[in-house]
Design brief:
The complex is a heterodimer of chains A (301) and B (357). With 301 residues, chain A is mostly helical. Helix content of chain A is 74%, strand content 2%. Chain A is built from twelve helices and two strands; from the N terminus they run αααααββααααααα. Chain A has a two-stranded antiparallel ribbon. In chain A, a hairpin with a 4-residue loop joins β1 and β2. In chain A, α1 runs parallel beside α6, α2 crosses α10 and α3 runs antiparallel to α9. Chain B is mainly alpha-helical. The N and C termini of chain B lie close together (12 Å). A two-stranded antiparallel ribbon of chain B has the order 1-4. Chain B has a two-stranded antiparallel ribbon with strand order 2-3. The longest helix of chain B has 28 residues. The relative contact order of chain B is 0.18. Chain B is globular. Chain B has a domain of 225 residues. Classes of the chains: A mainly alpha (301), B mainly alpha (357). At the A-B interface, α3, α4, α10 and α12 of A face α5, α12 and α14 of B.
């Protein structure tokens, strides 16, 4: 088994591109945990739901439109709907589960994941699906000499940087960001100032769900998805969060990129079979030797 | 709160008598002992198919009881117990088929292996808390699955059948009966172990940590040790449940034994039955087992129903069915609590803490 440097370098570049997608997945999970200390076990399921919703729209409502039109218009329709769903879910279901104990919220979100997966299994089927942007967009690439960079994966990476950067700016600089941080620290006191913590939690959930919908659709273009894909997506998002370090959006981005690179290099050096296992094992090593992640930040209690 | 702290007013101060058994738990244990005897002779009374289905019930009882120990007593929500189910199932294949140990003797050996594997895993998993602990355990289960399928000796990705059970018990009826008894013994052992653990110092420590972590810590409770013991015991129990799978079905598939669906089942059973009690998971397991037999043909729709019921239960009746049955009464069919018994005439009424809630 000879692996040359160019192949490794190529794997690293491809891994960085995939890492952008993982970062997008992870940011929603990390954001919800950061604001309301809630780990949404249905995170991956909602990503898959968004991909299916886009697929159905593209195949029914926007059939006549030339590629990549149907998927892009579908995205514009699905992302706000999932975001609103996130708001309602947080406001009227998840809010009831928020307590000292993480148990109720975990049980409810795990239940939601099972419901979504099986509703998709019942209404769609188990066959893997893919979203199509058309040959022109999907095969467009930039030649770097030692490897080719797909234009679409690059666009996803750029989108991830723009969205995470935008969210960081909003959190750091705007009145809304200050409000969210304040609610995250002490909802009762924020309530006294006239703001409604439940509404702010809802908006935070809407942001997280919007991000995961975008990630789910982008992932649906790059790889196959089926009703059962949610679990894998949740695990990747979680690994990126832990590798990057809790409570930091840029840490999450770096975590996503590290996970993508490790998987890609693992697949290149060993075989495709080891891609995911290598990612898991590196995650485990981070957990054991660097439990605070790459970006160390004291987690507020 | 009109309880008075007992002060030694009279010259003769009588120490309170502490009982661990209540009338309910004496009756409860007697009924359960009778039930176990009845279950033991069941293979002679019911059709073979029913015995075979009852093995599933034992598996659910074991899994739910051990998951409840983790989450209900230890506060650790794991969605990765399928790691030990898979290790238990494959362990039977390794010890019985590949190493030539008797299949029945392999069952306790495999549980021990699951426990030993859980010790190093606990050091990694305990770095995470709450929701991240949950996903972390799932990742560990995925690692176990992905490592298992690398070995062609155990059938790699496609699974393998267990030969030694056929060799040891040639007759199908005998094989099912033996699997049945093995399942019954495992279920009784796991329930007994969890009851003993729950009424021990560790159980008391865990309950204290669950209900009032700061007070528990200041009282000198070593939380991490108590949690690690619970984690390891739950892993051994899941290993036992996993061992019963090839013993009863005669084969192992990696996708099925390492499926996260096991965790969904465990959670559902415990939520429906009642988390934090010993009785709840057993009730939940029986309900789940009946539902599964009756509604098995509905597949995905059945799972949607379970999911909806589970979510509604968490929100509306967090104590589950056992919680609804006992409501505000203090009813334990298993002797796990402490109760104060007043000696007649020794103390003025209400002097010792009043009614024990």
């Amino acid at each position: 088994m000879t692996v040359n440097a160019a192949a490794i370098l190529s794997a690293v570049v491809q891994g960085v591109l995939v890492g952008g997608l993982y970062a997008l997945f992870a940011s929603g999970l990390s954001y919800m945990f950061g604001v309301m200390r809630l780990v949404n076990l249905a995170h991956g399921a909602f990503a898959v739901l968004a991909a299916y919703a886009t697929l159905i729209l593209a195949q029914t409502a926007f059939v006549g439109i030339p590629d990549p039109g149907p998927v892009l218009i579908g995205l514009l329709g699905v992302v706000p709907v999932i975001a609103i769903l996130g708001y309602l879910l947080q406001r009227y279901v998840l809010q009831l589960t928020l307590s000292e104990s993480p148990l109720p919220s975990l049980l409810v979100t795990f239940g939601l994941a099972i419901i979504i997966e099986n509703v998709l299994l019942l209404t769609q089927n188990a066959t893997p699906k893919k979203l199509s942007l058309g040959r022109a967009v999907e095969t467009a690439s930039i030649d770097l000499g030692f490897t080719q960079i797909g234009v679409f994966p690059l666009a996803v990476l750029v989108l991830a940087i723009v969205l995470l950067g935008g969210l960081s700016l909003v959190m750091a600089r705007t009145q809304f960001g200050r409000l969210v941080r304040a609610v995250s620290d002490d909802p009762a006191t924020v309530g006294l100032t006239g703001a409604n913590p439940r509404h702010i939690y809802g908006i935070a959930a809407a942001i997280a769900f919007g991000l995961v919908a975008i990630a789910g659709i982008a992932s649906g273009v790059q790889t196959n998805f089926s009703p059962a894909s949610g679990g894998t997506l949740l695990i990747f998002a979680f690994e990126a969060v832990i590798i990057g370090g809790l409570g930091s959006l840029w840490g999450t981005f770096i975590g996503g990129v590290i996970l993508g690179v490790v998987q890609s290099v693992g697949a290149a050096v060993l075989t495709k079979n080891y891609e995911i296992l290598v990612g898991h094992i590196v995650f485990l090593l981070f957990l054991i030797f660097l439990p605070n992640g790459i970006i160390r930040r004291r987690v507020r209690l | 709160m009109n309880d008075r702290i007992p002060t030694p007013t009279s010259a003769v101060r009588v120490a309170p008598r502490i009982r661990r058994f209540s009338p309910a738990s004496v009756v409860g244990l007697a009924v359960m002992a009778a039930l176990v005897v009845l279950l033991a002779v069941m293979p002679y009374l019911v059709p073979l198919g029913t015995s075979y289905q009852l093995i599933d019930l034992f598996v659910y009882v074991i899994l739910a009881t051990s998951w409840n120990l983790l989450a209900g007593f230890g506060g650790m929500v794991s969605i990765g117990q399928q790691a030990y189910i898979g290790l238990g199932a494959y362990g039977i294949v390794v010890f019985a088929d590949l190493l030539g140990l008797s299949p029945l003797l392999s069952i306790p050996v495999v549980a021990l292996v699951a426990a030993l594997v859980a010790i190093p895993i606990s050091y990694a998993a305990f770095r995470l808390v709450g929701g991240y602990f949950a996903v972390g355990t799932w990742v560990i289960a995925e690692i176990c699955r992905l490592v298992t399928v690398q070995f062609p000796q155990v059938g790699a990705g496609s699974g393998i059948s267990l030969q030694s059970m056929n060799d040891a018990f040639g007759d199908r009826a005998l094989r099912i009966a033996v699997g049945y008894w093995a399942g019954l013994v495992c279920a009784v052992v796991v329930i007994a172990a969890v009851v003993l653990l729950a009424r021990s110092r560790i159980g008391l420590a865990l309950t204290a940590v669950r209900d009032e972590p700061i007070a528990a810590a200041t009282s000198g409770v070593n939380v991490v040790v108590a949690k690690r013991i619970v984690f390891v015991v739950a892993a051994a129990a899941a290993g036992l449940a996993g061992a019963l799978i090839p013993i009863s079905t005669g084969s192992v598939q990696p996708g099925s034994v390492y499926s996260v669906q096991w965790s969904a089942f465990m959670i559902f059973i415990v939520i429906i039955g009642g988390i934090g009690s010993i009785e709840g998971p057993i009730i939940g397991a029986v309900i789940f087992w009946v539902l599964k037999i009756v509604l098995a043909d509905y597949g995905a729709a059945y799972l949607i129903g379970l999911g909806v019921l589970g979510v509604v239960m968490v929100l509306a009746a967090p104590g589950g069915i056992w919680g609804l049955i006992t409501m505000r009464r203090r009813l334990h069919l298993f002797p796990i609590g402490y109760r104060l018994a007043r000696r007649v005439g020794a103390e003025p009424p209400g002097a010792l803490g009043g009614p024990v809630r």
